[in-house]
Design brief:
The complex is a heterodimer of chains A (about 375) and B (about 230).
Chain A: H1 2-26, H2 32-55, H3 63-79, H4 91-96, E1 100-104, E2 110-114, H5 116-139, H6 145-163, E3 173-174, E4 179-182, E5 185-187, H7 194-216, H8 219-229, H9 231-236, H10 241-267, E6 269-270, H11 277-289, H12 295-310, H13 318-332, H14 338-348
Antiparallel strand pairs in A: 1-2, 3-6, 4-5
Helix pairs in contact in A: 1-7, 2-7, 2-10, 2-11, 2-12, 3-5, 3-6, 3-10, 5-6, 5-10, 11-12, 11-13
Chain B: E1 3-12, E2 15-25, E3 30-35, H1 41-49, E4 56-61, E5 64-65, E6 79-82, H2 94-101, H3 108-118, H4 120-124, H5 135-147, E7 153-157, H6 165-180, E8 184-189, H7 192-198, E9 201-206, E10 209-215, H8 216-221, H9 223-230
Parallel strand pairs in B: 3-8, 3-9, 6-7, 7-8
Antiparallel strand pairs in B: 1-2, 1-4, 4-5, 9-10
Classes of the chains: A mainly alpha (about 375), B alpha/beta (about 230).
Chain lengths: ~375, ~230
Amino acid sequence: MPRLRLLFLLALFPVMVAGAQLGLRAAGMEYCLTQLTMSVYYALVVMGLCLLMGYAGQVSLGHGAFFALGGYTTAVLTTHDFSGIRACAGVGVLERAGLLVAQQDLYGQAGLSVAPWAAFAAAMLLTFVVALLIGYPALRLRGHYLAMATLGFTLIVSKLLLGSALTGSADGIHGVPEWKLLPGLTVSGRSALRVQNYYLACGLALLLLLGLRNLLRSRVGRALLAIHDRETAANAMGINTAAYKLKVFVLSALLAALAGVFFTHYTGGIAPSEAGALKSVRYVALAAAGGMANLWGVTVMSIALNYCSLRGWFGSYDNAVFGALLILIISLAPEGPLKPLGLWLRRLAGRPDPERRTPHGAP
Amino acid sequence: MLLQVRNLSCGYGSLEVVHGASLHVCHGEIVGLLGANGAGKSSLLKAIIGLLPPWAGEVFIDRRPTTGQPPWRSVSNSTVLVPEGKMIFADMTVRENLIIGGYHNPDRIRHLETVLDGFPRLRERLQQVAGTLSGGEQQMLALGRALMARPRLLLLDEPSMGLAPLMVKEVFTSIRKMKDLGLTVLLIEQNANAALRIADRAYVMETGEIVLEGPAADLAHNPEVKRAYLGKG
């Protein structure tokens, strides 16, 4: 049965992705793919948060900041001109190794910047270290210390980005070069590559979804579920709960940073609003809207809602919509709106509720 | 001696609830730990496996010092606690609960069969969501889940709590069977009658201190114990 469901989802997801693209082309609205691609990248952040909130039972209000950390690291490294230090020993070695490449800025000025692949590696490494530093002390304690620690982190990061010339202050950074991922596959906002980038983002999302799904079905996933359910009992079963929570937190931070890197190369820049506290609250709202411990639901919900937001459907109420959504979900459908909907569909199809399966022991 | 506890103290916040308790459990024994509500029995058990940090004293399992180790380590010391109130994973199936119990046992899938042989009732309900089991079945599941880790020492916290008399009997029969399989058991009970019937030795705890110790048969006839815990005399 789960295998059947997986096959169904595996078929459904590509059909939905391709259907959206072909539909928009037919309607002459292919420009909408840009916002859809951005929404998919935002959804990667929420996928990580789904793991953290739904399975490890911890809330992070710092995922916007991790997204920005990834994005800004790659943006600074790939746009900053390092030719001033060309004379230094070692720079030549880096250049020959392909880690530093000649780049032209917006005004045609030649410069020397870090290659996108190297910048990507640096962004992931930096995020790994920062997430470890925040998570290690916060996750040794029980309760919602992580939420507080990450909120503090968010506030610090957004102030630093706003106040620092290196990160372009309130303007952020633009002119981030495109990223040649593989021959013939480039992360770029050029309209000629719009369709390619849309499929690239969706492919990446699908790959990560499958990877996370497999992780959750392994011994690791069972341990996470046990921790979420009853921490004391999980401990007594020999599960190192603090270590697990830390690993999940770091993994989800890395996912957010990964999304930030791709997003920044795709849109060609990043602004400090990405690190704002309201952005992080939005990710939490989206995870809640998708049903928390429901990877596919969370992904679909966050693509749909972010798309609406990016198309400007919520107007000046943008942040208010996500705040209201969070309140409504928590008070009316704490397991997410998709679950009651799913149960209703099941009942409509005459299938028993999974909750009530085999009440008297019959298989 | 499989478990030795020397002058262990522990508590919550600034309140000490166990004041220097000492006890030991030999290989293959069932030892009862009796006492009224709030005497500190559960806290002592938690401090033994590290769920509660010990304030003073020492714990040795198989002569190795384990004082203050993180709780998840206790399984590697072949010690498993079955916590009070069963604490099964209610949203998982019976099978998933058991598999989690064997988290550190690489042989868990094969061992599952052995455990199920001991609990035929669980075999019937393998795919059922654990939260829908009856109280007695949930206790059986908690015991089975603990056995999945192949422990040598089982710490049972009030296994009869909230169960119907018939189920209590069944649970105690299972504990007896575990002894026959070579397991060592330290058993907390408020149901002193039932505990003294299956235990080899027992300790009596009062307001954080161990006040009596002896063979179960002796304690069952001790006038103090009779008056305070057995409701006779």
